[in-house]
Structure formats: structure tokens, C-alpha cells
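wait is this the right file?? whatever heres the structure
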């Protein structure tokens, strides 16, 4: 990670869970980190809770709902004006809504998942890519995907969520090809964890004492690993499962 010291990393969905763990890991690794979140006060609290003053100074909290393009554009303008641009982007923001696809009146919930998990990821990646290309930076974009972006378990509570993550799997390869076609060496990585112990996990799964789960820090460590690989190495897909997972 030495080559990223002092460089700018942007993490979406930074207020809790996996996002908060990634923010701390990248800041500890020496990067200047911008945490984007709807609940920006949580990112501020995370920063204020850090013991190392130097790390606190490297962490910035910016309010941004990635389901809203105007929020994304405003956030990336702020980053360019205040910090010079983006070197690493981690698309972590995501939502899950327990609503059946065929249920009446479900349009708002379904659209929220797609707007956040798919369109938000695309638009943030677009803005980060343009920032990297303009400055001739061989940057890195990381998508926090999921194992359900590769297969669909028999869990009706997931609803449209697997479809949104399958889209992330496809988008990762599409972006890789577009980055190459643009003549850049910008990397893109999809990280697909199994069940992670966060607020997003449905209540019935959280109550299952026999269900193996990853910690948010496990995913953060995978991000640091992928970003820290030599320039010649691109981790295209990294799958992480807790030991003992059987679905």
C-alpha cells in the first residue's frame, strides 16, 4: 500500500458496517479517505472516535445519497476542488428490501434497490474514472459485490437484491473492457463476500446461532489486499466465505 500513501480514496456507504471498516482500513494504510453517506453524522462520529490525530485529519465525511445523481455530482465536485481528485473508489453502498417481486405497490422499494446498488455504482464509477483519466492516474475501482451476485440461494427475503448483484458482476467485466478501450491502466475489482455480520442481514438470519458469518473487517482486509497488489496485477473477482457456510 506504500504507493497509495497520501492518495485519495472514496468509499460509498461509509456510515456503518463494511463501509466503516473499509474507511478505517484505508485511512490506517495512509490514504486520504472520503466517506460518502446519507447519515454523514455517523462518518463524522467514526472520525472523531479515532485515537490517532494524523489519521483523523485524513478522513473526510461528505453527505451523499448515491441513489441521487445530483448528490453524486456534488460530492465528486467537492473532492476535486478540495482534494484534487479520486485515486481509488470503493463502491460499497447497498440496500436490501424484503418485498416480493409480485407484491402490489412495491415499485418504490424495488427502484430504491436498483437506483442504489446498480445506478449509484455506475454513476460513482463514471465520475471516478473521469477524474482518474483526466489526471492520468492508474487508479482502482472496487465493487463490493456478493456471493448472491453469482448464484441465488433459496431465501425469498432477498427479493431483487441478487438481481442487482448479478448486475454488478456483469458491470465489473464491462468496465474492465471499457477501461482498456480507453487506453488506461485503471483496475476494477469485484469482491463477493458471503454473509457478513451487519445491519443488512435479515433478522431471521441474525438470530441463527449456527450460521457462520464474516466480520466487516474481513471484507475491508480484502479491499486493502486487492488495492495493494502491484500495478501488473488485477484481482478481477475475489470471493470470501465464512468457514462452514453451507448454502
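ok assuming it is, sequence goes like this
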Amino acid at each position: 500500500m506504500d504507493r497509495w500513501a497520501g492518495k485519495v480514496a472514496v468509499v460509498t456507504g461509509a456510515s456503518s458496517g463494511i463501509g466503516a471498516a473499509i474507511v478505517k482500513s484505508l485511512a490506517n494504510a495512509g490514504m486520504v479517505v472520503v466517506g460518502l453517506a446519507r447519515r454523514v453524522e455517523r462518518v463524522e462520529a467514526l472520525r472523531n472516535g479515532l485515537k490517532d490525530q494524523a489519521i483523523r485529519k485524513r478522513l473526510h465525511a461528505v453527505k451523499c445519497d448515491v441513489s441521487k445523481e445530483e448528490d453524486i455530482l456534488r460530492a465528486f465536485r467537492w473532492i476535486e476542488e478540495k482534494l484534487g481528485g479520486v485515486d481509488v473508489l470503493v463502491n460499497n453502498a447497498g440496500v436490501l428490501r424484503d418485498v416480493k417481486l409480485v407484491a402490489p405497490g412495491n415499485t418504490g422499494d424495488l427502484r430504491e434497490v436498483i437506483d442504489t446498488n446498480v445506478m449509484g455504482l455506475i454513476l460513482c464509477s463514471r465520475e471516478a474514472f473521469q477524474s482518474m483519466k483526466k489526471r492520468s492516474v492508474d487508479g482502482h475501482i472496487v465493487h463490493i459485490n456478493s456471493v448472491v451476485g453469482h448464484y441465488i440461494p433459496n431465501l425469498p427475503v432477498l427479493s431483487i437484491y441478487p438481481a442487482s448483484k448479478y448486475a454488478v458482476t456483469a458491470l465489473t467485466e464491462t468496465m474492465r473492457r471499457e477501461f482498456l478501450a480507453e487506453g488506461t491502466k485503471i483496475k476494477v475489482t469485484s469482491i463477493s463476500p458471503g454473509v457478513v455480520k451487519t445491519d443488512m442481514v435479515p433478522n431471521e438470519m441474525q438470530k441463527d446461532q449456527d450460521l457462520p458469518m464474516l466480520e466487516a473487517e474481513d471484507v475491508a482486509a480484502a479491499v486493502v489486499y486487492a488495492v495493494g497488489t502491484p500495478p501488473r496485477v488485477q484481482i478481477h473477482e475475489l470471493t470470501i466465505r465464512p468457514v462452514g457456510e453451507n448454502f
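The first strand starts at residue 8 and ends at 12. so i think its the right one actually
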